Amino acid sequence: MPESAKIGGNLLTWYDAQARVLPWRVPPNSEQRAEPYHVWLSEIMLQQTTVAAVKPYFEAFTRRWPDVAALAAARDEDVLAAWAGLGYYARARNLLKCARVVAQSGFPTDEAGLLALPGIGPYTAAAIAAIAYGVPAVVMDGNIERVMARLFDEREALPAVKPKLKARAAGLTPAKRAGDHAQALMDLGATICIPKAPRCERCPLQAHCVSFKAGVAAELPKRLPKKPKPTRQGVAYFARRADGHVLLETRPPKGLLGGMLGLVGSDWTEETPVFDPPFAAQWQRHTKDITHVFTHFNLNLTLYVAEIKAANPRAGSFMPAPAPSDLPSIMRKAYEAGFLICDIDCGAKLGQYGKNRGPKSG
Ligand code: SF4
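Above: inputs. Below: predicted complex with iron/sulfur cluster.
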């Protein structure tokens, strides 16, 4: 038997016994295939996020929108609010665009057709084709790259080594049970062949693993040194009116946090931003900047807070205070800090926040 068939066989035997039970999956070696809607939704949610973080979102989405037609018919703001906390809001907007295409024409069953849909990249296209349709597509993500680099002791650094890793993975992909094979590699990368200290003693591929034999598994894959993340600055204004309404704006549809609710404020730039207050008031500067780590930069947000009787803002509008969980993470931090300052420093209306925030939604 060729080495690749032995590796594939060991992997599937292990998966049959050890597969993670996840709400979007069907059991291993099952007649039934996973729903394309479930595979697609989970894979979009899982980009850059952990399985533990995604599970409650996946369950809430599929309870509320049980199929792609229901999601396609949803209001944008409901889906964006339900997505809040998962980050990367461009994905939520693409999710809706994609749902509306698929509701008309169905999910394509091949990688090329899937790749043409909004928000679906090579990884997600291959994952849906393999898991939902059994196509022997080569599914590559960071976990699977790590397994390939170690299994075949590929020592060239990422990202240059990617094509070699994909060729290695293609050599292992079986014609049958391609979905289980892909999910087995995902599980192996997530639970056994983990980044810093691989659990080689429990690995079903140990007998075939070249880097394990060479004693260098934990050093792979090699990476070029990372550039340090830049830090951007921004200014945001939190204002609460005497009737409990707060100043908020819907961010422009394109760009970071596009279409989401947020505080009025400046762009985020590496230079110190200039942004005049939305109206004249006794603005208090929060003593500590609100900080947040995005994928490509760190953000320091200077927060100004005011409590006023009435005002005519030049940006945003006063609206009933939403639940903090309806806001994206950075805005939620600034919003909660604003409420706290109003309640503590401005003195009046203790308990207003609790009264207005509404139920938590995620
Ligand atoms: Fe990864 Fe170790 Fe298994 Fe090799 S033996 S694939 S390094 S866990």
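The longest helix spans residues 89-105.
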